[in-house]
Amino acid sequence: MATVKQILTIAQAELGIYESPANSNNVKYNTWYYGKTVSGSAYPWCMAFVQWVFNQAGMKLPYLTASCNGLLTWYQKNKPGNIVKAPKPGDIVIYNFSHTGVVESVGSSTVTAIEGNTSPASPAVSPTAAWSAAEPAVRPL
């Protein structure tokens, strides 16, 4: 089973990866997820990035989806004990604006996560968000 350190090392190595061309959603995470090169607005890749990170660490998530809400719903129905209100490093944060990332660190009122598809240029970055935007989280480990 993967460790938090392995998950974070893999995610951190992806910091600064961009779509090519910009605003295309053409990234290796989508190619891995869909099994072919895809591009366009129908292919946001924040969850594909999270799925890819865990897969690279040797831990396939139990539900393969490109949907943030899809993963959360699956865990709510099948593993509700893995839904947590206070994320910790290695958890999968599901933001209240249909976005996701791998939790890197947690502060008293913030969470920092490594995320994909974060801006018009869409790099993998490590932004910080308020707790209120970062609930709930999935604890897959």
Walkthrough of the structure:
α2 packs across α3. The protein has four helices and six strands; from the N terminus they run ααααββββββ. A six-stranded antiparallel beta sheet has the order 1-6-2-3-4-5. The mean pLDDT is about 90. About 30% of the residues lie in helices and about 15% in strands. The chain is of the alpha+beta class and about 140 residues long. It has helices spanning about 5-15, 30-35, 45-55, 70-80, and strands at about 85, 90-95, 100-105, 110-115, 130, 135-140.
What is the secondary structure topology, with strand pairs?
Layout: H1 4-13, H2 28-34, H3 46-56, H4 68-78, E1 83-84, E2 92-95, E3 99-106, E4 110-114, E5 128-130, E6 137-138
Antiparallel strand pairs: 1-6, 2-3, 2-6, 3-4, 4-5
Briefly say what this structure is.
The protein is an alpha+beta fold. The chain has helices at 4-13, 28-34, 46-56, 68-78, and strands at residues 83-84, 92-95, 99-106, 110-114, 128-130, 137-138.
What percentage of the residues does DSSP assign to strands (E)? 15-25%
Order of neighbouring strands in the sheet with most strands = 1-6-2-3-4-5
> How many individual β-strands?
6
Number of H/I helices: 4
Order of helices and strands: HHHHEEEEEE
The residue fraction in helices comes out at 25-40%
Question: Mind telling me the C-alpha Rg?
Answer: 14 Å
Q: Averaged pLDDT, please? A: 90
User: In whole angstroms, how far apart are the ends?
Assistant: 8 Å
Identify the overall geometry. globular
Largest sheet: 6 strands, antiparallel
* Main structural class: alpha+beta
Segments where pLDDT lies below 50 for 5+ residues? none
